[in-house]
Amino acid sequence: MNAPIASPFLDLPEIPLRDFEPEIILECVCKAYQMTRDMLTQERRTARLVEARQVAVWLLATRLRWNAQQIGELLNRDQSAMRFALRRVNMLRLKDPKLDRFMDRIALAVDARLA
């Protein structure tokens, strides 16, 4: 009788979907802003990059309930900058209906991928 062939994948831990959620959010933001993930974590601070980072911060905080420290570690920023980004983007959403609608569309794309 032949012994079953051992699979090298049997010893791998199952990775829950939750581990991929931040990457899904960053992917959706990058696609919406037509940039790479590396651009989000760079030191550069052009207006477009800053806005994209702030949107990513808002999505990570609202969709995953991540705190400023977790978000900062992901985006290579300090937690005080992440708290500021969240306050700023919430204020901008109230003042700029176009940005608000744009963020809603990104959030819908994220929600569809996370579902």
Question: How would you summarize what this structure contains?
Answer:
By secondary structure, the protein is mainly alpha-helical. Helix content is 68%, strand content 0%.
Provide an overview of this structure.
This protein has helices spanning 21-33, 37-41, 47-63, 68-75, 79-95, 97-114. It is 68% helix and 0% strand. Helix 1 (21-33) runs antiparallel to helix 3, helix 3 crosses helix 5 (79-95) and helix 4 (68-75) crosses helix 5. It starts with 20 loop residues before the first helix and ends with a helix. It has a single domain, classed as DnaA protein, C-terminal DNA-binding domain (Chromosomal Replication Initiator Protein Dnaa, Chain: A, Orthogonal Bundle). The longest helix is centred in the C-terminal third of the chain and has 18 residues, at 97-114. It contains six helices and no strands. The chain has 115 residues and is an all-alpha fold.
What are the defining features of this structure?
115 residues, mainly alpha, Chromosomal Replication Initiator Protein Dnaa, Chain: A, 0% strand, globular
Query: How would you classify the quaternary structure?
Result: single chain
Main β-sheet, in a few words?
A: none
CATH topology (fold) name: Chromosomal Replication Initiator Protein Dnaa, Chain: A
Q: In percent, how much strand structure appears in the residues?
A: under 5%
Radius of gyration: 18 Å
Low-confidence stretches: 3-17
Number of domains: 1
Shape: globular
Q: Give the N-terminus to C-terminus distance in angstroms.
A: 45 Å
* Average pLDDT reading: 86
